Task: structure prediction
Amino acid sequence: MENKKQGFLARYVKIIVVFAVVAGSSSGIFGSVIEAPSMAIGFWRLSLGMPVFAIPVLLKQRDVLKKISIKNYIWTFVAGAFLFLHFFTWFNAVKLTDIGSASVLAALHPLIVLVITIFVFRRKVGVRPVMGIILALLGGALIAGLDFRQLSASNFAGDVLAFLAAMFMGLYFTVGNEVRKEVSGSAYVFLVFLACWICFAVGMVVTKTPVFGYSTTDYVYIIGLTLVCQIGAHAVFNLCFGHVDSLYVSAWESGECVSAIIMGVIFLGQVPTSWQIIGCAVVVIGLLYYNYYTGLAEKEAEEGEKV
Result:
């Protein structure tokens, strides 16, 4: 049964990544409407989601956990720490600046992954895929309306946090991609979320953030955030590592701004501006361009291995 699941994931992984991106695009909306502090949001998000991944692994894959090397345990904890920092900076960002600016700045993580891929791992990335990523990011800037007045002094702290969220997301993706080459998907998802939960638990104690006492509405939104974003997005991203490169996941994840606008139209009745519509088109074209030339590179690599 497990082999069939892995076969399905491997076969449709690129489509699955897109659906995960759509799920993750609701994160900013959830974060902006939840009144609880960011530390509590992250703590409860991980606490509610952990059993979904912990129970199957602890019941059926304890042998797998024993076989994981100390090195991979350490790097998995590092990935979880980066995920913690991403969540913490992102939820603080959307409380301090507008979602438009935060989303565009946080979408810069493909550049972080790109730099690490080229200069740290010394891997070759084609010019055309890079052009696709840059085109998608330019589309994101158009969606923001190129209104640099949004980067005002009053929003500066939120804008900085949004950029830091992008940096930590890129590091989280990159480390996770390397660990997933040696650790199974379900075990890695459990361990990286456990590491992230530990960071939030420590953060709750250090900052003396209350565990309980928030509104019923907040708890309902946090449950929604857990189901849609934690399980539907981040868990899926981690499972996809090992089948696609972190740069691929990161590039498509930068397209969240498009699905966020579509959700705004459907659920909030927010009509996009002409610049936002053009920006969405540019993002989609950039991602399709990136996907097409990445696919060509993969085919060429496969043919080279056969020869």
Q: What stands out?
A: The CA atoms of residues 72 and 179 lie 6 Å apart.
